[in-house]
Amino acid sequence: MQTIIEPFRIKSVEPIHFNTPEQRDQILKKADYNPFLIKAKDVIIDLLTDSGTSAMSSNQWAAMMQGDESYAGSESFFRFESTIQKITGLPIVIPTHQGRAAEKILFSILGGKGKYFISNTLFDTTRANIEFSGAEGIDLICDEGKHPSIPAPFKGNMNLVSMEQCILDKGPKQIPLCILTITNNSGGGQPVSMENIRGVKQICRKYGIPLFIDACRFAENAYFIKLREQGYQQRSIPNIVHEIFGYADGCTMSAKKDAFANIGGFLAMHDESLAQQCRNLLIMTEGFPTYGGLAGRDLEAIATGLEEVMEEHYLQYRIRSTEYLTNKLIDAGVPVMQPAGGHAVYLDAKAFLPQIPINQYPGQALVGALYLHGGIRSVEIGSLMFGKYDHDHQLIPAALELVRLAIPRRVYTQSHIDYVAEVIIEVFQHRDKIKGLKIVEEAPTLRHFTAKLKPVSL
Ligand code: F0G
């Protein structure tokens, strides 16, 4: 097979600043072993997130010049609205400044004490917004999704048996919404099959529970369906996407992912009375409903990006580049989540660093080691991000201890990725030297963003 090439040429470039391991040692200490506290200029390859970090296309930049910055009724809003309506079939579109703003609005209205939100896996901001409302979030991932090293085509699927059981246990009236995260970010960027989406919808319909899709990476998920699910090989991506959203009562979306935008998001739905409540909150917190916290030019960039992301050459290159890095690591014996996810490679930190106990955060220790060795910034998705404490202040660990290397869209070339693989493999060869960490300061919610840590030996 011929090499799958980047389906774009580069028109504008940004310099990378290089530093030495000795300098990085100081930087890491100063950042209290938290990658969120490292300055971007001190990072060589930034794989902290694929969110808001995409390279925009010349067409997106051109569209931004068309931005209509009118406060109310701007042309850019109508273009944004009609693009989303066409892609999703959802009639009501409400812009927000990013995904979590959409979540905040939705869960402020539907949440509250005694309520439960069920999901394959809630992303951290989604869970935080649910819990902040007083409600509880319940993850019901399929069994394959719990095991990083077992390959399966759709490890993001909901466990339908547990889902129905959970609805019966809690009572359908206590469950205002079911949320399917596609692809499943916290579970390894793994896709959800169309069959599973259909199954979730059937159960939702049976118990009168609306289904919302957390649609950040909808096009990547659709491409996996095309590749892996019987009956979809001949279908176009827009057609598959339309079917996915056809099962949904609504969605939240961070346009910072599959819309290639540096900022933005939206809510879309069928229910006019829910939409009216959302708009009322939107006006208080985000802005008037035809801009919702965004500039007209952002609405244009998103509308153009949403069309571009469904191009098959792009998706083939995108999914292949993640798989390319994953396969290089597998060949070298590095424990990674298998098969490759859509937007990121996930290292299995528990298997990578078996000498570090979970309460010394092996994922965060590995994040530090990758930065020290090669200036690569990654993020822990494990017990620092999702861990809780019991009554005796003992850590209740997360289900998995992962390190995510998220690949920004259209930003890095194959040689950047080769370098990343080399660094990880070298760190793996010296893994026995890596030490655990302890927390010295933390916030009550979303602690991973600001927590301060230090090596246990200090
Ligand atoms: N849902 C999912 C599945 C996400 O991955 C994110 C963000 C959000 C919601 C929230 O969107 O950032 O626009 O407010 N994920 C980023 C990440 C931050 O790095 O995975 P947002």
Quick structural overview:
The chain is of the alpha/beta class and 458 residues long.
Overview of this protein structure:
- The protein is α/β, with parallel strands linked by helices and 458 residues long.
- The chain has 2 domains: 21-50 and 312-455, Aspartate Aminotransferase, domain 1 (Alpha-Beta Complex); 58-308, Aspartate Aminotransferase, domain 2, CATH 3.40.640.
- 40% of the residues lie in helices and 14% in strands.
- It contains 16 helices and 16 strands.
- The chain has helices spanning 21-30, 58-65, 75-88, 99-110, 124-132, 160-170, 194-207, 218-228, 237-246, 272-285, 296-308, 312-331, 349-352, 362-374, 383-386, 414-429; strands at residues 45-46, 92-96, 116-119, 136-139, 177-181, 211-214, 250-254, 265-269, 344-348, 376-377, 379-381, 388-389, 395-396, 402-406, 437-441, 452-455.
- The strands form 5 sheets. The protein has a 7-stranded mixed beta sheet with strand order 2-8-7-6-5-3-4, with helices on both faces.
- The structure holds ligand F0G.
- Ligand F0G is lined by residues 49, 51, 98-100, 123, 125-126, 181, 185, 214, 216, 254, 256, 265.
- Ligand F0G binds next to helix 4 and helix 5.
Helix-strand blueprint:
Layout: H1 21-30, E1 45-46, H2 58-65, H3 75-88, E2 92-96, H4 99-110, E3 116-119, H5 124-132, E4 136-139, H6 160-170, E5 177-181, H7 194-207, E6 211-214, H8 218-228, H9 237-246, E7 250-254, E8 265-269, H10 272-285, H11 296-308, H12 312-331, E9 344-348, H13 349-352, H14 362-374, E10 376-377, E11 379-381, H15 383-386, E12 388-389, E13 395-396, E14 402-406, H16 414-429, E15 437-441, E16 452-455
Parallel strand pairs: 1-10, 3-4, 3-5, 5-6, 6-7
Antiparallel strand pairs: 2-8, 7-8, 9-14, 11-14, 12-13, 15-16
Helix pairs in contact: 1-14, 2-11, 3-11, 4-5, 6-7, 8-9, 8-12, 12-16, 14-16
